[in-house]
Specification:
Elements: H1 8-34, H2 43-94, H3 101-106, E1 126-128, E2 139-141
Antiparallel strand pairs: 1-2
């Protein structure tokens, strides 16, 4: 309760402070009216600022989109590595390959089938059957037909 009460001296100092601020603002208004000018920005100043912002954006935007592509490629490499490792572990435990990627989730080798960062879907992974011709998932590739920054296609990774 003692903190909520304001002493008379503090109240007086506060009102004097507010009064000085108001008087200072009135002085500034009077000066700007005497010169016949109103405070604000001119059209030229605004155009210069807009040109500077546009120049900065034209420098930053390509780098931003390039970094997005690189991050998607890194996520794709990591997802492929994790799924291939899970397929190998499944094969070493059971002696055969999983029939589909969902089986890796059912048997708890993966928590979920990851989303392909390029197609933004977990259903577009391309499953490669084993070389022996027996059914199952031997390897996994991305379902994206796009080309990577290094010139290779994502579906060949």
């Amino acid at each position: 309760m003692a903190l909520l009460t304001i002493s008379g001296e503090m109240r007086k100092a506060y009102f004097n402070f507010i009064l000085r601020i108001k008087q200072g603002g009135e002085k500034i208004d009077r000066i700007s009216q005497e010169n016949g000018r109103h405070s604000g920005f001119t059209l030229i100043e605004l155009l210069v600022v807009m040109a500077i912002i546009a120049t900065l954006l034209s420098i930053v935007a390509p780098r931003y989109f390039n970094s997005l592509e690189r991050s998607k490629e890194a996520v794709l490499r990591q997802d492929l590595s994790i799924m291939r490792d899970a397929i190998d572990k499944f094969y070493s435990d059971t002696g055969n390959y999983p029939s589909e990627l969902a089986e890796l989730v059912e048997k708890r080798y993966l928590r979920t089938v990851p989303v392909d960062p390029l197609t933004e879907s977990a259903a577009t992974w391309a499953a490669v059957p084993p070389p022996s011709g027996v059914g199952g998932v031997y390897d996994v590739h991305s379902g994206s037909p796009e080309q990577a920054k290094d010139g290779t296609f994502y579906e060949a990774w």
